Amino acid sequence: MTSEPQKPQNAEAPASSLTQEEHERIASMSYEEARDQLIQAVQALEAGGLNLDQSMRQWELGEALAKRAQTLLDQVRAKLDAAQAQQQTSADTAGTQSNLE
Question: Is 34 exposed, middle or buried (0-12, 13-18, 19+ CB in 10 A)?
């Protein structure tokens, strides 16, 4: 049985090349802004010609943008699910005595 090497408990995540300001800017982006910036980051990586540091920066940028876009999609999904649940509850009691009280 093989086991994967375990990380030390005090291991820190690798430092990001993105600044706090960049993280804050991404956190305030709309879904469309994050998506468009993500497309640009992917295109830069696909085009090649970047050195290792530039490639890592584009990768980190893409990861942060993808996370922002997914967070926004998850929020919309939660709102839609809640609206559908509310609509179902209303439909279940429509025309019943409990709806008239």
Answer: buried
Task: Identify each DSSP E strand in 2-100 by its residue range.
Answer: none
Q: Is the pTM for the entire model greater than 0.90?
A: no
- List the structure tokens of 53: 């540091």
Q: Over the Cα atoms of the chain, what is R_g?
A: 22
pLDDT in tens, 20-43: 999 999 999 999 999 999 999 999
Report the candidate in 43, 42, 48, 49 with the shortest Cα–Cα distance to residue 66: 42
Per-residue CA distances from 87 to 75, 79, 81, 82, 93 (Å): 18, 12, 10, 9, 10
